[in-house]
């Protein structure tokens, strides 16, 4: 996660922004054109169906936590040290809103500009999340979307790569939100294993960027969730 106590550059849907507590989207690590992440899949309908199921499950996981936030908890701190609960939910909601313009409409980051900056939650954060999550999954589920080339700030990527990155990001942020509001922070085993495979190839590079805490030492015999969190500088 981003280091606390300073202003620094984060990435939302591959777009560099300066903001309070924002951190690099999982997977936004300067991928070279044509490079594929471990979690990305293309071509096979069976593989793509599995990815879409994992994406939907990750959205439900985060959404369950959003709906569990009490009115007095929106200003509470989170493990993303400079973010409140509302900041965290706003960030993940914004990530979902980027998907349709980039994947479905074929727009660039520059085309979208600052249209998705600022507060996206309004008076009913849970309803705002529900709308954004439904739109994001529908965009990825459209025929051909996962095979499409998406133009992110770090270069072209397959829709499946983008979907994999955001799935893992949603899983880890579900843990952050669970910790912040005192909810059950145990993550589904399948999503944890998926996220480890997605994050493992570039975890060290995230810390080297100066935007993430360094990976923690993984205790002997640690379970998969502890390993995932340690890769991203989080202690379970």
Automatic annotation (TrEMBL):
Signal peptide: none annotated. GO terms for molecular function: metal ion binding. InterPro entries: CHP03086, DinB/YfiT-like, Maleyloyr_isom, MDMPI_metal-binding. Residues 57-177 form the Mycothiol-dependent maleylpyruvate isomerase metal-binding domain. SUPFAM superfamilies: DinB/YfiT-like putative metalloenzymes. It comes from the Bacteria. This is TIGR03086 family protein. It comes from Streptomyces venezuelae.
